[in-house]
Design a protein that fits this description.
Layout: H1 22-31, E1 35-37, H2 51-54, H3 58-79, H4 86-96, H5 101-110, H6 117-128, E2 140-145, H7 151-163, E3 169-173, H8 193-197, H9 215-226, E4 231-236, H10 249-267, E5 268-278, H11 284-296, E6 297-303, E7 315-322, H12 328-341
Parallel strand pairs: 2-3, 2-4, 4-5
Antiparallel strand pairs: 1-6, 5-7, 6-7
């Protein structure tokens, strides 16, 4: 395109309201299209008991091989970036992040509390999926796992406030405690501005660590949550610093994902929703986790929010309509995860 030609107008300022030109509109639509829905086969019921036979299944070992090949290909591609100047690289990724201005706009125009990238991502998820359905707005309880500094809670607060139901909402949260000396600085987020103001709603376990990768802490959290009645929504936004081996991010974080799922399956009431952040899905542990979620929830979608930086691998799995406590698949899932976390096979 000639640099001398007339500049393309992005806005039709003369029209009623601001209008995007068609190319920009198309680009915005594409940003919101990054969604995937799991469809279970109609002729075969997915059951966690099927996982027993999967190792011998030729089909699944072929899939495993294909996924491993994809993982190698992606990591090779990422390796080609390792010699790039970090400042130049950040400038480039910032420029490529088309929706990067959303956060700034929200901060300045709406004075959002704790307006972070996480706030924007979760608000987007809340707006796209009926995880807070109208009929339960009479009373609503949420539990937030791995939640420091607390932007998901702030986003939910804003969302419910806009719907006029804030007073009926109860919440509880947990995270690696910024007040526990045993927690490493590399793993926890030490911004405690929000936690300090709402301390009675945070649970860090008997030892005070808040480490979710401990079944005792999960059981304590479940007991505490029962004080609030039925839990309708659980969010899990955990991540682990993988700077030393970025190519193994998925494996490194998979154990935390299993603990987050364990907590959600113990906490939720029938019909409840679970939102969990995951990364790539090349490893057997991730595929199995997706299978378990599909057995325990009637609707499972994966979304890359448009406010999530396109250059990272994070996506959110949105699970709706939990089959309920005591159901065969839930019992099997809990048993499978327990075995996985204790290093035993099924
Ligand atoms: C991306 S941040 C969460 C952001 C949060 N959702 C928000 O909206 O502000 C990931 C969090 O996971 C926590 N985390 C990592 N490992 C954990 C563990 N084993 N137990 C509890 N929290 C953990 C970190 O301390 C951090 O606070």
């Amino acid at each position: 395109m000639s640099s001398k030609g007339p500049k393309r107008k992005r806005y039709d300022s003369a029209g009623p309201g601001l209008q995007l030109d068609p190319a920009a509109k198309e680009q915005v639509h594409r940003l919101f299209e990054k969604k995937f829905t799991f469809h279970k086969p109609e002729d075969e019921k997915w059951m966690i008991r099927n996982l027993e036979n999967q190792a011998e299944d030729q089909n699944s070992s072929k899939i495993s091989e294909n996924l491993s090949a994809l993982k190698v290909k992606l990591n090779k591609l990422k390796d080609r970036l390792s010699d790039k100047d970090i400042i130049k690289w950040h400038t480039h990724t910032k420029f490529q992040h088309t929706s990067g201005g959303v956060m700034v706009e929200l901060k300045t125009s709406y004075q959002i509390e704790l307006c972070t990238q996480a706030w924007c991502k979760f608000y987007e998820i809340l707006s796209q999926f009926p995880i807070v359905p109208e009929e339960i707005l009479k009373g609503f309880t949420s539990v937030h796992l791995c939640e420091a500094p607390g932007a998901f809670i702030s986003a939910l607060n804003h969302f419910l406030y806009c719907k006029g139901v804030k007073a009926k909402w109860k919440w509880l949260a947990t995270t690696l405690s910024p007040y526990y000396e045993g927690n490493s600085h590399g793993q926890m987020i030490d911004d405690d501005r929000f936690i300090r103001e709402t301390l009675d709603k945070w649970y860090f376990g008997e030892d005070g660590s808040g480490n979710l990768m401990d079944s005792v802490i999960i059981d304590g959290l479940v007991t505490k949550a029962t004080e609030h009645g039925d839990v309708n929504l659980v969010t899990a936004d955990g991540s682990i610093n993988c700077q030393d081996s970025p190519s193994e991010q998925e494996l490194l974080v998979s154990e935390l994902h299993y603990y987050e799922t364990l907590a959600a399956l113990k906490l939720l009431c029938k019909g409840g929703c679970f939102v969990i952040k995951v990364f790539t899905m090349f490893e057997e542990a991730s595929i199995t986790l997706m299978y378990i979620l599909n057995c325990c929830f009637n609707q499972v979608d994966v979304i890359k929010p448009c406010t999530s930086k396109p250059g990272n691998s994070e996506v959110y799995v949105v699970c709706q309509d939990f089959i309920g406590q005591g159901q065969d698949e839930t019992v099997c899932a809990l048993q499978y995860i327990d075995n996985y976390n204790n290093g035993n096979s099924f």
